Glutamine--fructose-6-phosphate aminotransferase [isomerizing] (Arsenicitalea aurantiaca), 365 residues
Amino acid sequence: DKGNHRHFMAKEIYEQPETISHTLSHYVDMGNEAVALREALPFDFADLSRLTISACGTASFAGAIAKYWFERHARLPVDVDVASEFRYREPPLEKGGLSLFISQSGETADTLAALRYCAGQGQYVASIVNVAESTIARESQVVFPTLCGPEIGVASTKALTAQLTALASLVIAAGVARGTLDRTREAELVRALVALPSAVSAALGTESQIVEISRRLSKARDVLYLGRGPMFPVAMEGALKLKEISYIHAEGYAAGELKHGPIALVDEAMPVIVVAPSDELMEKTLSNMQEVAARGGQIILITDEDGARAVGEGVAETIVIPKVESFVAPILAMIPVQLLAYHTAVMMGTDVDQPRNLAKSVTVE
Ligand code: F6R
């Protein structure tokens, strides 16, 4: 049932304040502003020397964001790879290490094969899945659930933000166990997560502006998405979502890599979407933006109030989302990129919920 929405994807985008909050309530003890994992862990975060994450598509971008988080907040080194590369590479893995798999369906063939490889290497095997009775869930020693309900639209939206919510909770748990987050900081990060659903609701309020911007995107042949740090995987996800449902070619790039190649593509005809909330990296990204503007590039900036104030001239459109603690900013930044892809696809008249050539669950290799 789509409710009042035209597509399941729209319904699922709009459900995110609830689905994030529901997922969070599984991981967090709100009263104590602490993470309280209910799952019995066969490993101890304090003893790990490395975490290996494998997933496909959108779920792999959740893993890529988690890498920044685990490394910063838990000082835990993370390798993250798409499962189809990881499994055939057969990387050497230290016995007793932790391997984590992320999958909405829990049936993705490459992710499952990567899991079986890691289990065979004596790794602890954990997964973040949405479908509790799936193969990946069954074959994992510990399952961290996402509680976003069934996701019907082929393009993943609420599953991704639920995966990120679960991952953020694990990062806090790991940081506490490893002594890299003290009690005060733990409480701050938990509060930031708890405040996220209302920030997501506010970010959904950018929709009418995004409808207008999508009119412009729908005329483009190519779209470039840029982000730095944890916003780089957001850029990748924005590009993937646009490709999947609007069939417009899009690429996500690390902002700092712009001058190493893709800047050659920049002209008036190619919209450049820059994901840059105000943080310690924003200034660097702003200077990349100036390089785009100087070549006539049409910049669509996704930022917060402070970021919008800092940019000044040279930006065609600024989408302002609430300012939140940097930790949770990549989750919030998913909302405008989802809406941009959705409305562009609607404008182009594609089959949003059933895009051509795609399946909800990829059980072939
Ligand atoms: C993107 C999308 C795909 C899936 C990927 C993994 O919108 O839907 O990229 O994210 O096929 O699927 P799961 O999470 O089921 O393993």
Notes: The CA atoms of residues 105 and 131 lie 6 Å apart. The pocket of fructose -6-phosphate is lined by residues 56-59, 103-105, 108, 111, 154-156, 240, 244, 361-362 (CB under 6 Å). The mean pLDDT is 96.
